[in-house]
């Protein structure tokens, strides 16, 4: 997506453009953001206005900058995403927790069992441009241990954790789908709809790629559903990788710069994912 901020820039390996940020650009665009926000009628931004009142410590200029970065400094789109973000946050967290800090002891308190399943987690490394890598493993779904809302809140938590890395705000996030060990009965339509709805115009994150590795035979059924609910812009970000581990790893490195040490052992990489240690570290750190 081109804008005045990306004029003259060369697309990266995922076809995305990234502005060279300067103080002048940020200052000017933050003012435009506030101007665009003011243009939106109060009745259409009720939750965003509540956030300004209830959690001014959250809605800082740095927080709003994430929305500008996500929309490549298009202030109009950033303001609309910001408003939708607060609507979705209230929808998924409820009015009691929506304006709390998204952390394990605040807004996500009560989601421990869902979080511990490890369906959604972060790999411990970023790619060469600083993109965080979110891993999604549907084989860990256990419908007796989560609700739709708690799984969506878990997704929000992991995405906000990824956005703690400034380069992820600037360059985007990679989603790594690892469905090889999953069963069709584990596929959760409602969770999928909630996650797609959160990414589409709400959460302040650019999805650079959705890599699906070693899809099972029933993936064509899941993909047919995804095509119904996923915007075309996101569908174009999907890359499917089949074949033996050696060929898949070679493609990841040659085409996307993702080396074996940045990919999990479950798909042939060398990175050992320790989700429970990650959760404990964050809980101990008050995150």
Describe this structure in words.
The protein has helices spanning 23-39, 46-54, 61-70, 75-97, 112-117, 148-162, 166-171, 189-199, 219-229, 232-235, 245-256, 275-284, and strands at residues 120-126, 132-136, 173-177, 207-213, 238-241. Helix 2 crosses helix 4 (75-97) and helix 6 (148-162) runs parallel beside helix 8 (189-199). Strands 1-2-3-4-5 form a 5-stranded mixed β-sheet. The model has no long low-confidence stretch (mean pLDDT 94). Helix 8 links the parallel strand 3 and strand 4. It is built from 12 helices and 5 strands. With 287 residues, the protein is of the alpha/beta class.
Helical stretch count? Answer: 12
User: Could you say which structural class the secondary elements and strand pairing correspond to?
Assistant: alpha/beta
Poorly predicted runs of 5 or more residues: none
Name the average pLDDT.
94
The major pleated sheet works out as: 5 strands, mixed
Radius of gyration: 19 Å
> How many angstroms does the end-to-end distance come to?
33 Å
Q: Please bin the fraction of helical residues.
A: 40-55%
The strand order across the widest sheet is 1-2-3-4-5
């Amino acid at each position: 997506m081109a804008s005045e901020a990306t004029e003259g820039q060369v697309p990266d390996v995922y076809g995305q453009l990234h502005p060279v940020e300067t103080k002048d650009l940020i200052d000017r665009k933050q003012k435009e953001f506030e101007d665009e926000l003011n243009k939106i009628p109060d009745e259409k931004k009720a939750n965003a206005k509540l956030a300004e009142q209830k959690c001014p410590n959250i809605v800082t200029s740095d927080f709003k900058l994430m929305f500008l970065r996500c929309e490549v400094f298009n202030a109009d789109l950033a303001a609309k995403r910001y408003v939708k973000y607060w609507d979705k946050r209230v929808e998924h967290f409820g009015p009691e927790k929506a304006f709390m800090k998204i952390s394990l002891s605040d807004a996500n308190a009560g989601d421990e069992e869902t979080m511990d399943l490890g369906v959604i987690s972060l790999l411990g490394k970023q790619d060469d441009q600083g993109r965080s890598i979110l891993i999604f493993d549907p084989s860990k779904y256990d419908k007796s241990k989560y609700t739709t809302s708690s799984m969506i809140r878990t997704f929000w938590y992991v995405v906000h954790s990824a956005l703690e890395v400034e380069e992820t705000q600037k360059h985007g996030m990679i989603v790594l789908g690892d469905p090889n060990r999953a069963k069709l009965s584990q596929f959760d339509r409602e969770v999928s709809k909630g996650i797609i709805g959160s990414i589409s115009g709400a959460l302040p994150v650019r999805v650079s790629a959705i890599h699906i590795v070693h899809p099972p035979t029933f993936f064509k059924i899941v993909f047919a559903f995804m095509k119904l609910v996923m915007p075309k812009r996101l569908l174009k970000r999907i890359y499917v990788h089949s074949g033996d581990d050696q060929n898949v790893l070679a493609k990841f490195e040659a085409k996307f710069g993702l080396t074996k040490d940045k990919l999990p052992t479950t798909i042939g990489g060398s990175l050992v994912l320790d989700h429970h240690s990650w959760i404990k570290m964050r809980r101990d750190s008050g995150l």
